[in-house]
Amino acid sequence: MQLAEERRQHIIDMVQQQGKVLAAELAQRFNTSEDTIRRDLRDLDAAGLLRRVHGGAMRRAGAGVEPSFGQRQDAEGPRKQLLAGALVACVHPGDTVLVDAGTTNLAFARALPDGLAATVVTNSPQIALALDALRQTRVLLLGGQYVAHAGAVLGAHTVAEIGRLRVDLAVVGVCSVELERGLGAVDAEEAALKRAMLAAGSRRAAAVLNERLEAAAPFLIAPLQQLDQLVLEADAAPALLERLRAIDGAPEIKLALPSSIKTRP
Question: Long-range contacts: 234-239, Cβ < 8 Å, 24+?
Answer without folding.
Answer: 234/82, 235/210, 236/210, 237/210, 237/213
